Amino acid sequence: MKSLELGLDRRAVIWIVNCTLGGTVGCTAIAMLITYYCTARFGAEVMATTLRLAFYIPLLLAIPLFAFIGVKMQQLALANRLLVQASRYDGLTGCLNRSAFTADVIDFFAKQDLTPFPPTSALLILDADHFKKINDCHGHLAGDAALVGIAAVLRGAVGEDGVVGRLGGEEFGVFVRSTDAGAVGGLAERIRLGVAEDGLPEGGCADAVTVSIGVALFTYPAVYEDIFKIADEQLYLAKGAGRNCVCMMEHSHMPGDIRAMADQLRSGFAEFDARPRAERTGEGGQPWQLAGR
Fold first, then answer.
1. Is the dihedral of CA 45, 51, 54, 55 positive or negative?
2. Which among 86, 121, 182, 207 is least buried, having the fewest CB atoms inside 10 angstroms?
3. Which sequence positions are flagged as catalytic?
4. Is the keyword Transmembrane helix in the record (predicted)?
């Protein structure tokens, strides 16, 4: 309970104050109206005495009551937020846990069915190399620190362009919503190099922390389970190629000519939107429109 009390921020305190004042004013007003209606016929002196009682008694009772209720409601809201956070995030690394990561990515997949020209996305599966040696040589605290370091590199590299999750153990997942082969390849290399540069353990063990990365670059429509399987297969290829490397595969259900047409339309719309407004209007100042049947 003490931690919940300390967790009440400025907005929560303002809400408690407003709740207390509003509830007290409302109760006092209702009490005085009822008292006036019931005692008006008994004369001015009786009515004045009862109105004073109707004013002070709600003040004495309502202020502590509404303050107590407001604090408890804010503590309950804070506890609910903490429960939601605990159910979605990995406690060690701060990344999404596997279930939350999968749910968010599947939700994005579903929304692409309503998008005329959905983007090209990528799913990256990463696994720390020889992680058991790190635990055996330096202890599990060092292994936990290595996982936290990997998560920091992932968040720094991905930023707001994707979703990062810990899939379990020393395995992580990264989903990039909109990308292409060159961009996702560069992202995977930045992650690999970032982990290798920051992942040198201290002590007598010379094993550095490195990651192997499997990448599935794909276009929609797609099924998450199929894309995950492709990325996982690429991860095992990276492991078999000597670890500390990246393997990538492009996947699309669309035929090649339709995919090329969609890419061309996508780039055409982007180029059209990037033009100045004067270039996008006709002689009469009206915008050009796409003709269709």
1. negative
2. 182
3. 170
4. yes
